[in-house]
Amino acid sequence: MSGDNKAPARWVIKIGSALLTNNGQGLDLVLMQAWVDQMVALRGQGIEVVVVSSGAVAEGMRRLGWSSRPASVHELQAAAAVGQMGLVQAWESRFQVHGLVTAQVLLTHDDLSDRTRYLNARSTLVTLLGLNVVPVVNENDTVVTDEIRFGDNDTLAALVANLVVADRLVILTDQSGVFERDPRQDPGAPLIREAQASDPRLMEVAGDSGSGLGRGGMITKIRAARLAARSGARTTIASGRSPEVLAALAAGEAPGTTLLPDTSAYNARKQWLAGHLQMRGRLVLDDGAVQRLREAGSSLLPVGVVSAHGQFSRGEMVACEDQQGRRIACGLVNYDHEEAALICRKKSSEIQAILGYMNEEELIHRDNLVIL
Ligand SMILES: Nc1ncnc2c1ncn2[C@@H]1O[C@H](COP(=O)(O)OP(=O)(O)O)[C@@H](O)[C@H]1O
Ligand SMILES: N[C@@H](CCC(=O)OP(=O)(O)O)C(=O)O
């Protein structure tokens, strides 16, 4: 089993309110188009993109002619409902320039804490990515109550990064990154270029939101980096106004502040996978496949799979067993149960002819496989 192609990289890109709405003056359509152009280029390089877009409340306030953030939850929710229309219209039309379709995904805390809803949210997002659609995520502000709200989209973006097991979380904001002191108070403060996400000093330098529009400030961004690190994602906090910031990241440059997971991204992701997703089915492997998985750390190709059991969708967790029923590994599968049944024992070069399309040449890529 070799499967040497890299699994598609996956980035979650979060854009904050002040940045997106030009400090509350209205959606910055020029900047949005610039990010969209770069995201489309990322996709051309094999990087799947999920957008987490704030700005519903800020845009709703502007549309309703409110100059200060209302105190009552109901008014905030009303503003979010108005503003969300503007947000999704703007994203959809910017991506349409490139012939791409977007999808609105509104999530609440319950969606990510309940096991079944978590897996449904995951399947939907992974399916959308498989369909070449760009998901645009926000909190479902109109139905959340204070006790159950994420409150800030930094946390939501990190949980989405966990959900889709992203490689990278990019938080675009109105500052160039994390500074040693809030640059709104001290414009001379030096920029922190790189740190471990877990570094306790970060919590000391990070302050609240200085814009009055965003909710989180730097504290929630650092916490988000820690959450994202659990599933192996590195986080970049950078200025969304810096030209070509996403393209620079894709080119291997490090604009802004990079916050790294403690263990290698690979190990963190594997540990997280092992503990956080429910098994939805089983693949029975032949002896050769068992040996390649254990000894060579290879991907699982369909040719080494004898049979598929259970009702799993693409992107869900399945167990890999030997023919005596011993569990060897588990991992995120690239095909659903019907497709898997059709391609078992077949060479990857035959997938296209059998299914009429090919997602990936492996059933489970080694990056998404945990050997037990
Ligand atoms: N150490 C720090 N480095 C950079 N910005 C900081 C820091 N501490 C606090 N901030 C504030 O965080 C703000 C960004 O957070 P926020 O307004 O919530 O943005 P967003 O809307 O992008 O989520 C910055 O404008 C800045 O005033
Ligand atoms: N769901 C809210 C998100 C508010 C929020 O977290 O804003 P930010 O701190 O700018 O990312 C909205 O769309 O207004």
UniProtKB/TrEMBL annotation:
Pathway(s) the chain acts in: Amino-acid biosynthesis; L-proline biosynthesis; L-glutamate 5-semialdehyde from L-glutamate: step 1/2
Predominant location: cytoplasm
Reaction it catalyzes: L-glutamate + ATP = L-glutamyl 5-phosphate + ADP
Residues that coordinate or bind ATP: 14, 173-174
A Gene Ontology molecular function term of the record: ATP binding
Keyword check for Transmembrane: no
GO cellular component labels: cytosol
Classification via Gene3D superfamilies: Acetylglutamate kinase-like, PUA domain
InterPro entries the UniProt entry points to: AceGlu_kinase-like_sf, Asp/Glu/Uridylate_kinase, G5K_ProB, Glu/AcGlu_kinase, Glu_5kinase, Glu_5kinase/COase_Synthase, Glutamate_5-kinase_CS, PUA
Gene Ontology annotations of biological process type: L-proline biosynthetic process
EC code(s) of this entry: 2.7.2.11
Broad EC category: transferase
Domain PUA: 281-364
Binding annotation for substrate: 54, 141, 153
UniProt KW ATP-binding keyword: yes
Role according to the record: Catalyzes the transfer of a phosphate group to glutamate to form L-glutamate 5-phosphate.
Family classification: Belongs to the glutamate 5-kinase family.
Protein name: Glutamate 5-kinase
Biological source species: Isoalcanivorax pacificus W11-5
